[in-house]
Design brief:
By secondary structure, this protein is α+β, with helices and mostly antiparallel strands. The chain has 10 helices and 11 strands.
Length: 293
């Protein structure tokens, strides 16, 4: 079937198997994951949502030239026509500009701060989860602090920090993808193999760090091809995104973590109490915490 068929012009892959079913062949480096033709939304819209999320979250900051149409088509296992339509939608939204010979450039200039939530009193829950789940260390290195980590850790952009990427599993099923940044002076107190057997909070406390509190934001995002492969999901699957900064007793930020969770196996719970006030009644958090399905 021609790649210029009416089916692909509508952003959908043509059926290649018997019985009218789409066959998505494994691609090296993607772990067999792709844009999912079984989802109700067209493939071009799935690609659009993934790229839009990367732009809005500043993973592709202003001025970034996006990968070319052929590269994106290969990465997400769709046709070039599907990618072109997704990029055209981004341009229509004012997020990118497209110029012949120059490619697609991000023009979106940022967004306001997300609503944050305090998590004092929940650190013990995080420690318990660390002991009850299994860890796979994907990457470990000392790197220059990227902008978001530098802002969270109150250090200069480019200052040396420890970066670790891990997944956590429960009963053999991966449910979270964790990217942590720790100041280098703290990070050098433990080795990569230590992060497999013990929660990061416990490792820091063993090093003399007195962890006291944390603040976090909770939003939603979509799985890109790397995260999808590690969490055994389809590209474009919905994820719960938690960004958390942990502080010691002196108020120094000692850890910045971005955690991506499968919503079918992880949730955030909150119990509320009705509180009477002078002017009006309101809801007040009674207990909060995390729960694995």
């Amino acid at each position: 079937m021609s790649r210029n068929s009416d089916t692909e012009k509508n952003g959908m892959q043509p059926p290649t198997g018997s019985g009218g079913q789409d066959i998505l062949l494994p691609v090296d480096g993607l772990g067999g994951k792709s844009a999912n033709a079984a989802l109700r939304s067209p493939l071009y819209h799935q690609i659009y949502l993934i790229l839009r999320d990367k732009i809005l979250s500043a993973e592709y900051p202003t001025g970034t030239v996006l990968p070319g149409e052929f590269d994106l088509a290969d990465q997400y296992r769709v046709s070039r026509i599907t990618v072109k339509r997704a990029l055209d939608e981004l341009a229509s939204d004012g997020l990118v500009t497209r110029e012949r010979g120059r490619g697609t450039t991000v023009t979106f200039e940022g967004k306001g701060p997300a609503i944050s939530a305090a998590v004092e009193g929940q650190l013990e829950d995080l420690l318990s989860m660390g002991y009850e789940t299994q860890v796979r260390l994907i990457d470990f290195a000392y790197v220059p602090a990227p902008p978001e980590a530098a802002a969270a850790l109150l250090c200069d952009m480019g200052a040396e920090v420890q970066r670790a990427v891990r997944t956590r599993s429960k009963d053999g099923t991966p449910f979270s993808h964790l990217t942590t940044y720790v100041p280098a002076d703290i990070g050098r107190s433990f080795a990569p193999e230590d992060m497999v057997g013990k929660p990061l909070l416990a490792l820091m406390e063993d090093a003399g760090v007195r962890v006291a509190s944390a603040s976090q934001t909770i939003t939603a995002t979509l799985a890109d091809h790397n995260v999808a492969a590690l969490l055994d999901l389809d590209v474009g699957s919905a994820l719960l995104k938690v960004s958390r900064t942990v502080f010691d007793v002196e108020g120094r930020p000692v850890e910045f973590i971005t955690a991506l969770y499968r919503p079918d196996s992880y949730c955030y719970q909150m119990s509320l109490s009705r509180v009477s006030g002078a002017g009006a009644n309101s809801w007040s958090p009674k207990t909060t915490g995390y729960k694995l399905a």
